[in-house]
Recover the amino acids of this structure.
């Protein structure tokens, strides 16, 4: 069959006519259906989703072109704003180019090594106290337990405000509503719809942070909220009240949800591969009570974390908008097009990852380093100037929680269990990952 071409002799991007059936397949069988679409339509194909046409790319070379974005062809802000802009207005991920760089330079002061050490010292006792309480949980589901724990840690290390259980529940409910609204099919404030609930959640979160802002500016503290209040760029610029509210809402969401799925993925794979759980526990027992620098030296745990993030990318799709006509791998992409890179898909490409569906943390061992098969073979935190600014915080928190979990419990799942991943928005297990917890002798 002849290939339809566009001006300049570039290939025209093709794709399925109907979007909804393919979205359902991508939600329930992401790897298999992505493979089908790539084989049917090529390394760049289009699909209609959430009221827009998406140009989907497959492969590390295209991921590098789009995410590293050396010629500033692709913008982050308009892409993410289409999905979550009304709910995470002017978060760092929704800014571009010089403005993004300006805000990022100020934000970086909240993620220095000294700041991370401070956050770790605050969160460690909270992790231990929280995990002890899991012993009394009837029919524990790890994803739900991790979600409650990461919200508690985020509020403690990021916000530094004491909240009642009910206040924590309201904040958690607001973040869930805001994240889910981004993939709503009805994208207007129709009462009772996810979009309307997302807007209500945003208003609640704004009121929450604004109510605590004067005291935080006055009293300071070791939390991220206080860090943003006093952060200054090299040329003396600081954040306005609006900046701080916007960044806190976005960063708390990012720290809460993406960390929860990474913890759930690690715990799931360690439950289904008990030999790796034993190896990780031996390392943690030998290390004992560790500080921030000690956490970074837990090599087995680091490899388990990376492999778990490869198999379940916390942010499965990274959208951009082309600001001018361009080409990707010989395909024509018109200005204004939505272009997506999918870490979830790329982490399963057999040309980058041998036996990609197999859980094998040793692929990150020094003598193998399959993640170096390409500069962007491994991209769970994105790449380029928009690479996750909190990646070192997230990695530290994940290691700290799993280290203490390994010291406190042994956990298992039923024989043959496979977690049901839902990719409606950010990935989550629909059943919460039911486990059996066995308390270890202190």
């Amino acid at each position: 069959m002849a290939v339809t071409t566009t001006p300049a002799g570039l290939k025209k991007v093709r794709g399925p006519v109907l979007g909804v059936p393919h979205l359902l397949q991508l939600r329930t069988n992401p790897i298999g259906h992505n493979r089908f679409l790539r084989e049917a339509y090529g390394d760049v194909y289009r699909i209609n989703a959430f009221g827009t046409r998406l140009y989907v790319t497959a492969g590390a070379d295209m991921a590098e072109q789009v995410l590293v974005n050396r010629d500033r062809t692709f913008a982050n802000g308009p892409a993410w704003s289409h999905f979550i802009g009304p709910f995470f207005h002017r978060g760092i991920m929704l800014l571009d180019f010089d403005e993004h760089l300006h805000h990022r330079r100020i934000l970086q002061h909240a993620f220095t090594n000294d700041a991370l050490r401070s956050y770790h010292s605050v969160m460690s006792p909270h992790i231990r106290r929280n995990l002890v309480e899991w012993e009394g949980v009837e029919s524990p589901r790890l994803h739900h337990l991790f979600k409650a724990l990461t919200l508690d840690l985020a509020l403690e290390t990021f916000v530094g405000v004491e909240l009642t259980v009910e206040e924590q529940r309201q904040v958690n409910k607001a973040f869930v509503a805001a994240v889910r609204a981004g993939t709503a099919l009805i994208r207007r404030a129709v009462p009772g719809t996810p979009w309307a609930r997302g807007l209500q959640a945003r208003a609640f979160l704004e009121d929450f942070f604004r109510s605590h802002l004067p005291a935080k500016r006055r009293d300071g503290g070791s939390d991220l909220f206080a860090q943003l209040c006093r952060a200054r760029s090299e040329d003396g610029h600081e954040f306005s009240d609006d900046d701080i509210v916007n960044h806190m809402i976005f960063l708390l969401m990012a720290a809460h949800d993406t960390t929860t799925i990474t913890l759930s993925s690690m715990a799931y794979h360690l439950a289904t591969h008990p030999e790796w759980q034993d190896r990780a526990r031996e390392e943690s027992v030998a290390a004992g009570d560790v500080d921030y620098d000690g956490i970074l030296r837990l090599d087995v745990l680091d490899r388990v974390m990376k492999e778990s993030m490869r198999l379940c990318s916390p942010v499965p799709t990274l959208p951009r908008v082309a600001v001018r006509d361009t080409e990707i791998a010989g395909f024509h992409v018109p200005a204004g097009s939505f272009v997506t890179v999918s870490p979830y898909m790329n982490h399963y490409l057999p040309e980058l990852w041998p036996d990609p569906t197999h859980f094998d943390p040793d692929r990150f061992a020094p003598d193998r380093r399959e993640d170096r098969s390409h500069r962007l073979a491994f991209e769970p935190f994105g790449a380029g100037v928009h690479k996750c600014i909190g990646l070192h915080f997230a990695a530290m928190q994940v290691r700290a929680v799993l280290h203490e979990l390994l010291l406190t419990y042994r956990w298992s799942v039923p024989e043959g269990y496979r977690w049901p991943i839902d990719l409606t928005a950010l990935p989550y297990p629909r059943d919460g990952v039911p486990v059996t917890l066995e308390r270890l002798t202190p």
Q: What stands out?
A: The chain has 16 helices and twelve strands. The radius of gyration is 22 Å.
